[in-house]
Write a structure and sequence with these properties.
Strand content: 5-15%
Oligomer: single chain
Shape: elongated
Distance between the termini: 27 Å
Mean pLDDT: 89
Number of strands: 2
Order of helices and strands: EHE
Helix content: 25-40%
Number of helices: 1
Radius of gyration: 17 Å
Length: 62
């Protein structure tokens, strides 16, 4: 996961999913700060886009 550099150093190079960990952390911190201030959190979906980084570990099956 996360498209880290190690996935491009092995053979075959690995396909990974890039996740914006900064955005995930910011969303988690926002929720924690709200809880610490006494707010009652409402149930909600937080969507943070991901991106497929396709390398040599996947191929089209014919």
């Amino acid at each position: 996961f996360d498209g880290n550099y190690m996935s491009s150093m092995v053979r075959p190079t690995l396909t990974t999913m890039y996740q914006d960990t900064s955005a995930k952390a910011a969303a988690a911190i926002d929720g924690l700060v709200a809880l610490m201030s006494g707010s009652t959190p409402e149930k909600r979906d937080i969507r943070i886009p991901v991106r497929l980084i396709e390398r040599n570990s996947v191929t089209v099956i014919k």
